[in-house]
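Two folds, back to back.
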Amino acid sequence: MTATEKMKVEIWSDVMCPFCYIGKRRFEDALVQFAHKDQVEIEWKSFQLNPDLKKAEDIKQTLDSHDFADAVKHDIAEAQYLGIQGVPFFVMNNKYGVSGAQAVPVFAETLEKSFGDWQLENTKPKLTVIEGESCSPDSDCG
């Protein structure tokens, strides 16, 4: 397994969802308090609750443009694969899902748990080595 430098938090959100804004703020509040916040990478994902819902014109033009269409489709497909049925939805360390605009302590607890798991998965093994005769990569035997 390759060690990653930061634990990833993926957040599915829809710009027209009021709970997405509330959830974002609560997550940010928990993250500010988190001791390892500099080791967390946030990745925002698109989720369209209702693609036909009237949006602000600039948002609609952006989403309708082909610049982001593939990325939005990919995010929505990934959400469907994970079983995400509503937003906001937070996936931490690809293991823990938090649905909805939860309270700050819920985000804080989930950050702690997922970060603990991430640290275990990304810690280099510490070996006690018993030295003996061997050859090095530069063909030095002895």
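---
second:
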Amino acid sequence: MIFGVGGVGSNLVQVCKAFTGESARIIAVDKSLDRLLYAKETMGATDFVHIEDGMTESEIIKRIHSKTPNNSGADVAFEVIGNKFTARQAVLSLAPGGKAVLAGLTKPEIQMELPITHIVRRKIEIVGSFGAKASVDTPEVLKMLERRELSLESVSERFSLEEVSAAYNKLYEGNITGKAIVVM
């Protein structure tokens, strides 16, 4: 399961698919229906959960669990937004023995509250992930592109150098589906 399917998350969808194969269930979670449809129709998500305004945390978790086998939760949840609420939801949406991978960055003073007993009893693992090691990962990504296990479909918008301000505005507003690049 992937919380946040913008630029980073949409790429993570196809990486998960490449590593787990066609039979794996990859659930995209986001508040943008456009990004969710893009993740499913273009990037390989098998299902999605649309977080709508006004939903409570328990409604979100219940909807997520309904997409998993036996309503038990996800085996792995990635949070790539850097939001304390979605990071908490990622942890709470896990099946027993599940792993939450927190990769989204936020301000250093932001903290997340978690129910300790829930984590202990369900044997949940929480790990952080900060980027890639370019010297190791770039050659592997290029090989995966050659084998067509990954695509560049996540590049959904291109901007000229003169349009950089407009690109940042769209990014800040959350109005970019996939990734945007500046073409020089």
